[in-house]
Amino acid sequence: MTIVQKLPTMMLIVLIGLLCSTSICIANVLEDALVGAWLFDMNQGNIAEDASGNGHEGDIKGAKWVQGK
Asked: What is the pTM of this model?
């Protein structure tokens, strides 16, 4: 077999290797370093509430609430 004939198999092996080596990343944030956290999960209103507890609410201007996924 030539290298051209082996190419699809090699690409499949590389793809499977990449898929198996990836993992879900979760960010760890130090609470002391957190300035604000805006989740935008209120589904109404014109205020983006700060979930960090630091009181950095924001005004939502020119946006429209839509159904989430």
From this structure: 0.50
